[in-house]
Please model this.
Amino acid sequence: MSVNAPNIFLVPLAPLPAPLPAGGLLVVDAGADWPRAATSLDLKALCEHCPSPPYLRVEGLPDTAADDLAGLLGMGIGGIVLGDSAGTAHLQHLETVLRVAEAQAGRTDGATPVMVELGGAPEAFLPPRPLASARLSAVIFDEEASFAGGMHASARLMAAQAGKPFYVLAAGERIARLASDP
Model:
């Protein structure tokens, strides 16, 4: 599964902007406090009325992550963006948590796609490891969070190795733009 959109729009959890951007994939950026998104009436309404299910950007996986994600999947979240990802091990941890959450939410195992956001964690690149996951739908490189400017090429290579689209979130932007197809 791959993302098929020219742009990925990141919008804050609260308050949600009106009108919502069109012409791309909508990602609600809940950051490190993402478990509270399960109680957001705005997010619930968005999931009910959005033409395509929005993704949720999360940072960190607390001990309650499976239960929190199950509630969000039940609400209608279409996928997850793993923000500030530390690479393969972080992605594998999320996959394990998602298996439990999908079972709790009544979804098929593997039904929830994941995008990985790279740039803020040096361990994602050192040493470089391929991002192998059937759930992986795209790689996003966050230029602003990047700890070192030279990691753009490494992130692009990781997307190409995975055979997934590569998006770049330029510094100060809230739109990740498709840089290339693998």
Summary: Residues 88 and 131 are 5 Å apart (CA to CA). The longest helix spans residues 88-105.
